[in-house]
Write a structure and sequence with these properties.
The chain is α/β, with parallel strands linked by helices and 468 residues long. The protein is built from 15 helices and 13 strands. The protein is globular and about 55 Å long. Belongs to the glycosyl hydrolase 1 family. Pfam families: Glyco_hydro_1 (PF00232). Keywords: Carbohydrate metabolism, Cellulose degradation, Glycosidase, Hydrolase, Polysaccharide degradation.
Length: 468
């Protein structure tokens, strides 16, 4: 594939692929790994489709050499993966597990040998269960333990890892996990969910300091960021009620993260958004300056826009942190993925340019996840002809290239995901991978989207070489 099917990007643009530990590693009870909240959640009846778990997942723990070879063949510059906190520190605090660190040593070495930059996410939702038993993200001590874990990983891997992501999608960890209940730990809470959001941000600030301290102590380079799943929010109508609902949703989805991180303060409309829940007594006066550590980059995960309208609030006794008088409504007239998400590529560019307008202090952006779940079916020739995913990637990368040309400072893109994997509460029936995984024998088969992305990367390298 060539020509108009392959959007062009600036020289030096970073291309990669992404995964997460619990979704692909397996080996849940091997080499000293402790249980996480997702191990517990998966074993709670009715939580995960068909009662599936990440116990084996893609068996990346044992098959990582094959996966690194596939990354090398793909031609990526970088690979974003997460270290599993309960694999490194099985109870979240206390003794470090040598076997867990040794696995990530082997993986990082394999990537470096293949000429692929390792980009490490320190938290992709797999909180050690022992910390959840002590209050989890609702309590400040979890943030302090996270900082110690971050320092442990940085001291061990920092001679080969330059780019660090502290947290992945704290919105999901705090609100989907503690208020919607669709992710671990699976609770529906008000103020405790907001406390979790705050302590996740405190954890980021503490970890950022530790990552930089480790780099300084060892004479290494380190770039530190955080990944947010920011949303493009569209009012369902021109009514003042829907406009106010979007304003509250902006705080829930976007501003509660961006304002503390970039401006050292929480949004002015917190009371309008959460009422009395927002005053929980869990913040300390110096926390906002701690949270607002300098960012070398902001990671952004993007999949789809949300259409929002006003909705009545439930009774106070039943209200959670996501009950803000706003609800999502369908976006019609567009294709939807198997997640039920609308495919609207232009909203990707709109989000990036809107962020630049709203936040002049925004650091350079890395797109740390983007992709689609599709109904992949192997053909008679054994290949997966995932044309819908190819179209999704082509159209979103084209929109991204347009946003960069219009002034968005985006420095890299990671496709989600390298492999079909455990898709949280959906189990294994949602496939995001550009490589198919047969969950019976765990064999890997590159899909048409893998080959399309490979062609894009080859064209980019050739263009980069031509421009010096």
């Amino acid at each position: 594939m060539s020509g108009p099917e392959l959007p062009a990007f600036p020289p030096g643009f970073l291309f990669g692929a992404a995964t997460a530990a619990y979704q692909i590693e397996g080996a849940a009870d091997e080499d000293g790994r402790g249980p996480s909240i997702w191990d517990t959640y998966c074993r709670t009846p009715g939580r995960v489709a068909r009662g599936e778990t990440g116990d084996v997942a893609c068996d990346h723990y044992h098959r990582y050499p094959e996966d690194v070879a596939l990354l090398k063949e793909l031609g990526v510059d970088a690979y974003r993966f997460s270290t599993a906190w309960p694999r490194v520190v099985p109870t979240g605090s206390g003794p470090v597990n040598p076997g867990g660190l040794a696995f990530y040593d082997r993986l990082v070495d394999a990537l470096c040998d293949a000429g692929i930059e390792p980009v490490v996410t320190l938290y992709h939702w797999d909180l050690p269960q022992a910390l959840e038993d002590d209050g989890g993200w609702r309590v400040r001590s979890t943030a302090e333990h996270f900082a110690a874990y971050a320092r442990t990983v940085a001291d061990r891997l920092g001679d080969r890892v330059r780019r660090w992501i502290t947290l992945n999608e704290p919105h999901c960890a705090a609100f989907v996990g503690h208020a919607v209940g669709r992710h671990a730990p699976g609770t529906r809470e008000g103020t405790p969910a907001l406390a979790a959001a705050h302590h996740l941000l405190v954890a980021h600030g503490l970890a950022a300091r530790e990552l930089r301290a480790s780099a300084a102590e060892h004479g290494r380079a380190a770039e530190v960021g955080i990944t947010l799943n920011l949303d493009r929010l569209i009012p369902a109508s021109d009514s003042p009620e829907d406009a106010a609902a979007v304003d509250r949703a902006e705080t829930l989805h976007n501003r509660v993260w961006l304002d503390p991180l970039l401006r050292g303060r929480y949004p002015a409309n917190e009371a309008d958004t959460w009422g009395a829940m927002a005053d929980g007594g869990y913040r300390r006066p110096a926390d906002t300056s701690l949270i607002a550590q300098p960012l070398d980059f902001l990671g952004l995960n993007y999949y789809r826009p949300l259409r929002i309208r006003h909705a009545p609030l439930p009774d106070a006794a039943a209200r959670t942190a996501v009950d803000i008088g706003a609800e999502e409504v369908p976006i019609e007239g567009v294709r939807h993925t198997t997640m039920g998400w609308p495919v609207v590529p232009e909203s990707f560019a709109e989000l990036l340019l809107d962020l630049r307008r709203r936040y002049p202090e925004l650091p350079p952006v890395l797109i740390t996840e983007n992709g689609s779940a599709e109904a992949d079916v192997p053909a008679e020739d054994g290949r997966v002809h995932d044309g819908d995913r190819v179209a999704y990637l082509r159209d979103h990368l084209t929109a991204l290239a347009g946003a960069i040309a219009a002034g968005a400072d985006v420095r890299g893109y990671f496709v989600w995901s390298l492999l079909d994997n455990f898709e949280w509460a959906y189990g294994y029936d949602r496939r995001f991978g550009i490589i198919a995984v047969d969950y019976d024998d765990l064999s890997r088969t590159p899909k048409d989207s893998y080959h399309w992305y490979k062609d894009l990367l080859r064209a980019h390298r050739e263009r980069r070489g031509a421009t010096g």
